[in-house]
């Protein structure tokens, strides 16, 4: 019997890190040497002991095993609302927030709430593949906009004006950026809110790296801009800020109508974030471990600088980023393309970088290096 696979599966490639994991496994088998991977941005720093102790307590509570419901519990919502007020001076209500099973949960389900088959979405190029993949899965038309080195990898409003059409439903913005590490100030964000209002489209603002910044830079929230509540939804994550990546904890905040529509979609696809994790999230948002967070940032910064020095010796060209967990580097002119450059490096030195082509056409001559890597043995490889 021949199994028929849905035609939509041809609309997008295999997820980049799923594909690279197979290549790494084959390389390690062939060479007998463990690959030093600068691929996936998976935080490896152990969470604060204060948070782990609380999680152990929450797991043992008498209702921990129960269905949590389809919205946030009051404790979680209140903690998130208070955090936005303290961190960004933004006033929210419970209608403006919703917990997610990781930020990627939001990326996967928001398109179902905002667009129909044939509608258009503006996505950054280069940009996180999770912005385009679900849209293609649901039959939307993905329209890339360019992030170029000469403009600091920031969007060009003039280009956006040329790309937007009556079919455009929303656009993705992501700063600090994955993969480029570029960051926007609050003033630099304002024109995009005005653009969205002019064209009656939604901005989906991925702010997963708002608390992973360096050298004095402080990332803003798009919700700080007056009037943004009309057109913006912000996605937040516990993964990077608290090293909770494997727990799958995130949130959306912003336009109440979109939050309500997303909650309706999610009521069909999951049963909410577990009670222990919601309580952990509430505790973390209201009890910041400053010493642990500062040590984490210093560790990432030190790794960033160590890795940067090694990448320069490979002939890569880049700017030191103000945020996120990545170095976005241009390959030497002598290299054919990013894929070939990465595969040659993997074969010869058992070092993995992510080819920039995975993030869009404009990434074909770039590579991404994650700084979520133990660099103690980097001298043995580079």
Molecular structure report:
It is a single chain. The chain folds into 2 domains: 7-46 and 291-380, Aspartate Aminotransferase, domain 1 (Alpha-Beta Complex); 63-286, Type I PLP-dependent aspartate aminotransferase-like (Major domain) (Aspartate Aminotransferase, domain 2, 3-Layer(aba) Sandwich). The protein is globular and about 55 Å long. β3 (120-125), α5 (129-137) and β4 form a beta-alpha-beta unit. The protein has helices at 16-31, 49-59, 74-88, 103-114, 129-137, 157-163, 186-199, 238-242, 256-269, 275-286, 290-313, 338-349, and strands at residues 36-37, 97-100, 120-125, 141-146, 168-174, 202-206, 232-237, 250-254, 326-330, 351-352, 354-355, 366-370. It has 12 helices and 12 strands.
What fraction of residues sit in β-strands? 5-15%
The CATH C-level class name of the largest domain = Alpha Beta
| Number of domain units | 2
Between the first and last Cα atoms, what is the distance in angstroms? 50 Å
Radius of gyration: 21 Å
CATH architecture of the largest domain: 3-Layer(aba) Sandwich
Query: Mind telling me the CATH superfamily name of the largest domain?
Result: Type I PLP-dependent aspartate aminotransferase-like (Major domain)
Please provide the count of β strands.
Answer: 12
The secondary structure category is alpha/beta
Order of helices and strands: HEHHEHEHEHEHEEHEHHHEHEEE
Overall pLDDT metric: 96
Oligomer: single chain
Strand order of the largest sheet: 2-8-7-6-5-3-4
Helix content estimate = 25-40%
CATH topology group of the largest domain: Aspartate Aminotransferase, domain 2
Main pleated sheet: 7 strands, mixed
The helix tally amounts to 12
Low-confidence runs of at least 5 consecutive residues: none
Q: Given the C-alpha coordinates, what overall shape results?
A: globular
